[in-house]
Every structure is written in C-alpha cells, then in structure tokens.
Design goal:
The chain is of the alpha+beta class. The protein has helices at residues 6-14, 24-37, 43-46, 55-64, 71-85, 180-192, 235-245, 254-265; strands spanning 40-41, 88-96, 108-117, 120-124, 137-138, 142-144, 147-151, 156-163, 166-174, 203-208, 211-216, 219-224, 227-230.
Length: 267
Amino acid sequence: MDQTRNLPLFSTIAGISGPFPAGLETLNTFHDGWPRTIPFENVDVLLNRQLSIELEDITDKLLHKRRGGYCFEHNLLLKQILEEVGFAVSHHLARVVWGQDELTSASQTHMLLIVTLEGSKYLVDVGLGGVSLTTPLRLEESEQKGFVLERIDNVQWLLSLNGQDGKRLMYLFEKRPCEPADVLVASHFVAAYESSLFRHNLMMTTLCNGEQYNLFNKHLTIHTGMKTEQQAETYDAFFHMVSAFYSRLGVLSCEDMQAIFDKINNR
C-alpha cells in the first residue's frame, strides 16, 4: 500500500482542502477534522479479533474501510500523515488517571503525539475516547480550550479537564519520546490482557454538529458545550446508537451488533 496517499485520502474523507504547509493552521485543521471523521471505538478488541497496529493495516481499517479505532491506531496514522506533510512528530505513552482524585500508580495504556513547530511543542491527541481533544495544546503550564497542562517534575506532565464540575485528572505523560517497541507492547497489553477495560466494555465516541456522543456499553452521554445529557440504557437505544455510528458506511453487520450486545449484556 502506498502510504504517501494517506494525506489526500484523509483530506477527501474529512472534507478539507489544501495546500497543507507544515504550520499551526494545518495542524489545527487536521486535529479539528479528525474526530469528526474517524470515530473512536474498540469493537475488534471487544470481540477478541486480531488487532494490528502496522500502518498498512491501520490505513486499510480507518481510511479504506471507514472504521474507527482506539488511541494507538488513531495517533499512529495521524503521525504518518503529519510526517508526510513535513511536521516533526514523536510518540509518547501516557498513564491514564481518569477518575482518580489524586495521582496514583497507573500503567502506560495510552499513546499521544508531540509536534515540534517553530521552536514550540504541541500536545496532539486524536485517540482519546470519552473526552475528545479537537485542537493541539501548546506544551506549557496553562489552561487551554478547557484543558489544563501542568508540569509535575522535570520529566512528567499532567493533562486535566477543566469542566463544569471542576478539574478532572486525565493522564500523565513524559516529554521524552517512547520507542516503537514500547507502543507495540502497550497496545498488546490493552488489547489482550484479560482484565483490560477494552476487552469487556463497548466504547464509542464521535463528534457531530457540535455535539460529542459517548457510548459506554448501553449508556449514552451527549455533550453539547458545557451541557451534558444522559440517556437511559435500553436495548433499542443501544442498537440505534451503534447503527448511527456507522449508518452511512454499513461496516458493522447485524451479526456484529448482536455479538457486541451479547458480550456486554452478559458480563
């Protein structure tokens, strides 16, 4: 597969047009368009299907087959596209601390990108389910677009969400890049470890018309700005939402949706 064709294919799918010089405007355009174009989902992991993070396989799944994926798939593909444009990009692992009141030990189960541009560094992350970043964040201690970045020590940074209920911790990451082998090990752990959250729970996130839809098992949450709406858990609502995620694509069969429902309904 010719990986240099990923940029024009993504731009066509996302409905954005070039030229795309390696500058902040292009970075903002890609970051904003990504979660509106490619959903976050863990269907393959949930159904115990083999998951590859080889770039050729990710490209086929997310761009050609128009599926979604989880953080390693999203951010590895975006990294390649950004490098195709001419950006300097590194990948980094993160320790997810979402739901914690204080920082405690956590495994490195998330991957993000850092882009170096004109002497500044930017946090780029299009693979975070639940709370989607739609813009790069300058890597400095500050509040930006509803998120807070803090330096914990000489090595670690903390990203938090500054929402309507106050600040919520999200993840810790190091400024030092990781190795490709580290990404492979982390992705395998998330996908294969028996107690992994991803193996037993359906997670889907997409943005549409200014609203973010989060589906966790049969529970739907809709975020519109600072307003959050919770939907009741019902059989019909589950199938409606899973169908809606892929309605224009037809990539999930009725058999797939039934298998997903059976898996999460019999936990």
